[in-house]
Amino acid sequence: MQDTDDLYSVPADSANLAAEWGRAPVPVHRLSFGGSFSLPDDYAIHPFVYWTSALPFNITSGNDTNVDSIFTDRPSLAQPGQAGAVATPFGLFNPNPQPGEPVIPRNVGVGPTNFSFDVTVSKAFLSYKGLTPSSHRTTVLLSISNLLNHINYAPYNGVLTSPFFGTANRALNMRRLTLSARYDF
Question: 49 pLDDT band (50/70/90 cuts)?
Answer without folding.
Answer: very high
